[in-house]
Amino acid sequence: MKKMVAPSLLAADFSNLSKDIEIVNQSEADWFHLDIMDGVFVPNISFGIPVVEAVKKHAQKPLDVHLMIVQPEKYITAFRDAGADLLNVHYEASPHLHRTVQEIHNAGMKAGVTINPHTPVALLEDIIEMVDLVLIMSVNPGFGGQKFIEHTFHRVEQLRNLINKKNSKALIEVDGGVSTDNSAQLYEAGADVLVSGSFIFKSDDPVQTISELKK
């Protein structure tokens, strides 16, 4: 298993975003994680395509774009053009998930699928060989700074077993309440990529915090 960290810019300082982008650039982080919320699929609104474009101009690492929106299939090429390297759509928002994953790949991006805390891992059995990444939400999506759901460890283990069973190359990403209190256990359970926002950007030394999350 890899040990990767993707700082979530949802928790960055938007009055000085270039500073926080540069912090991530200089750190051991692997990706930038960008949460796109529409106020419909989740009860919050974050930022959209112009911010992704702005981040892309300064980012020296790939953009992992997480769409928490209804009808994500409508915006595949728009986010590709904005600079997304990996596009992540929710299982719960994608009635034609197989087609959506194909379209993301056809647009030249890696494709991820996200599942909410209540969505059974087993529902991914018929898509797991197609996707490059599965994001397990360890909080209910919509807001940063929430408490980690302990049952996530078991869900990561379930997903790792499914990936192994199907000989899938998919990475496992975990997002929500991730910190050094649970990072080691998440890697041990089978996670490859940890998303962390508030824990990184509200720490005294974000670069050091990212390094600690990878250990």
Characterization of the model:
The protein has helices spanning 17-26, 49-58, 76-82, 97-106, 152-165, 183-189, 198-201, 206-214, and strands spanning 4-7, 32-37, 63-68, 86-90, 110-115, 133-137, 171-175, 193-196. It is α/β, with parallel strands linked by helices and 215 residues long. The protein has a single domain (4-214), classed as Alpha-Beta Barrel (TIM Barrel). It has an eight-stranded parallel beta sheet. The chain contains eight helices and eight strands. Helices cover 33% and strands 19% of the residues.
Summarize the structure.
The chain has 215 residues and is α/β, with parallel strands linked by helices. The two termini are 13 Å apart.
Give the arrangement of secondary structure elements.
Elements: E1 4-7, H1 17-26, E2 32-37, H2 49-58, E3 63-68, H3 76-82, E4 86-90, H4 97-106, E5 110-115, E6 133-137, H5 152-165, E7 171-175, H6 183-189, E8 193-196, H7 198-201, H8 206-214
Parallel strand pairs: 1-8, 2-3, 3-4, 4-5, 5-6, 6-7, 7-8
Helix pairs in contact: 2-3
Helix content: 25-40%
Tell me, what's the shape? globular
Q: How many beta-strand segments?
A: 8
CATH architecture descriptor text? Alpha-Beta Barrel
Characteristic key phrases:
215 residues, alpha/beta, TIM Barrel, 8 helices, globular
